[in-house]
Amino acid sequence: MKKAALTGIKKFDVIESKMPIIKNPGDVLLKINSVGVCGSDIHYYTEGKIGDQIIDFPFTIGHECSATVVETGSNVSKVKLGDIVAVDPLVACHKCSQCKSGREHTCLNQKFLGCPGQLEGCLAEFIIMPEENCFIVPQSVNQELAMLIEPLSIGYYAVQLMLIHSHKDLDKKNSIGILGSGPIGLSVSLCLQASGFKNIFVTDKLDYRLTVASNAGAFWTSNPDNEDVVESMLKINPDRLDFVFECCGKQEAIDQAIELLKPGGMLLLVGIPEVDFISFNISKIRRKEITIQNVRRQNKSVQPVIDLISSGKISPDFMLTHRFPLENTGEAFDIVSNYKDGVIKALIQM
Ligand SMILES: [Zn+2]
Ligand SMILES: [Zn+2]
């Protein structure tokens, strides 16, 4: 089978590789249909690492995919040959203290698709995954959309973390901030709207992404390169905001979020910074008693997103902007890493 391996910084090669074989009776052989290019993949592409997760080249990345079930192990009971599935890329051990407390997403022995030292990724024609990682997608949902379920599940999970921390009288009319309008910021916006929040304030440095955000239901959008977004938002929201989602991983956005939040507010960090250290104005976050909530991928949020899509409560089709064959994986990554050509989500089609 073919796969696109990262063979150096900003270098992909399509190579022949051994067909994977089912070893555990609970495993499934998947034929990959579409693979999304994620912001985290871009870190591996341009820097060869995220924090201390460093690639040993050659390595296959990719963790957002839809696939068709082509073979099942002897213990597989739910998924069947021919099913289209959305793949949860994290294989949890179910034995460690994190798994036992329901936090499979921070499993101490986790293996994540396309993560160096863990599992080779899905930029390949076939992969093996445990059955529990395969979520059947109804026929009404097309297989390209199934690929978007992974990034959407992160937005959904971030919103669940917000809701868990909301005081009981949080009004759905209250304004919520999203700083950064890439696929994850847009996913947060769609999931907030599905939960009844309408006054969503979005910022981004790319005007085309603001247009997309506003077409996708954001109430207000602005570019911090063109105006003081904090001042403009506070004019409309003099009491400041209860929740701000940071979805771009930038120091500047974190500083803006701290200004925007009201005392007792919460900053949800969803973006992945390029740097290893970020700073917070301790005096401001202390005096306002700001809660900082990190959002680590997602937990138990894949099926709820499938339900939101199949019931029509969210329509994320607009995010799919670019399609490439496996041979042109490098071009897809170039476009995404340079924000070219109005890209939101680029996908590789097998
Ligand atoms: Zn991702
Ligand atoms: Zn575990």
Features:
350 residues, alpha/beta, Rossmann fold, 2 domains, seven-stranded mixed beta sheet, 10 helices, 28% helix, globular, binds zinc ion
Molecular structure report:
Strands 3, 6, 7, 10, 11, 18 and 19 form a seven-stranded mixed β-sheet that branches. The protein is α/β, with parallel strands linked by helices and 350 residues long. The longest helix is centred in the middle third of the chain and has 23 residues, at 143-165. Helix 3 packs across helix 4, helix 3 (143-165) crosses helix 9 (302-310) and helix 6 (229-236) packs parallel to helix 7 (251-260). It has two domains: 2-136 and 315-349, Medium-chain alcohol dehydrogenases, catalytic domain (Quinone Oxidoreductase, Chain A, domain 1, Alpha-Beta Complex); 153-294, Rossmann fold. Strand 13, helix 5 and strand 14 form a beta-alpha-beta unit. The radius of gyration is 20 Å and the shape is globular. It has helices spanning 39-47, 97-100, 143-165, 183-194, 207-215, 229-236, 251-260, 282-287, 302-310, 329-337, and strands at 2-8, 11-16, 27-36, 49-50, 53-54, 64-72, 84-87, 90-91, 111-112, 126-130, 134-136, 176-179, 200-203, 220-222, 241-246, 261-269, 291-294, 320-325, 345-349. One zinc ion (ZN) is lined by residues 92-96, 98-99, 107-109. One zinc ion binds next to helix 2.
